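Encode chain A's predicted structure.
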Amino acid sequence: MTLLTESSAAGIEDQRETPQKFMIALDVDGTLVDHDGHMSSPVREAAQAVVAAGHEVMIATGRSLNAALPIIEQIGIDRGYAVCCNGGVTLRLHPELTDGYEIIHKATFDPGPALRALRMRLPTAKYALEDEDGNFLSTERFQDASFGVEAIGVDFQTMLEATAVRVVVFSTENTPEEFNEAIQHIGLAGVTYSVGWTAWLDIAAAGVTKASALENLRDNLGVDVASTVAIGDGRNDIEMLLWAGRGVAMGQAPEEVVAAADEVTKSVYDDGAAHVLRSLL
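Encoded structure for chain A:
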């Protein structure tokens, strides 16, 4: 494992004779922005610089579409691609498109079996899902900034009957370890899931991750694996870091995320992403 520093980044830059074009996948929360949602000037400027240099820069986030768009705009991506909902939704961005984007892929699934099993094990948790039309349905007035839209309060039966792109489970009474234990007891089948920093669970369709969506884009764009870079900090970034030719974990990432990476940069509060991005210029 390598700790990426400013001096090591400069060394990489000095050794490069011909600028190489990279496909760069960037997590948002805990990577580009801190856990209060703030993006520092060094990170924003470094991200804008790699976009301006012509690299294929993509947001790859657990956030839903409407919560991802402000970040995409902030770092200056007006054409290219973005991955939202942990791989459940892929966007094509172009200024000539209505609203500047179009959805080119959406992976949906039946949330009923997972929701029923989780409700039995975690009866006090809050539940929300994004349906195929981009609406968020939620129980117990559950709202989060990652939804990007106001959640619609519904009863649990209505959620069971929906077609989902993303399911979110949150609890103030359980630890992430308890969430993992519950999932292991339930044995969720037919879905992909990840547990976050807090007692927060994200569920997507089977086989769908940030990495699966990025691999489809990489293949379509004809980018060599060695020219792929990913930066992330969460458990939902593990597959993405393993997928990338150069996977970089943020300094505050959990141990299992660090283990999946090729390098570790500084924390989000020390502008770790900026150091990595500058090394690509």
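Confidence is low (pLDDT under 50) at residues 5-16.
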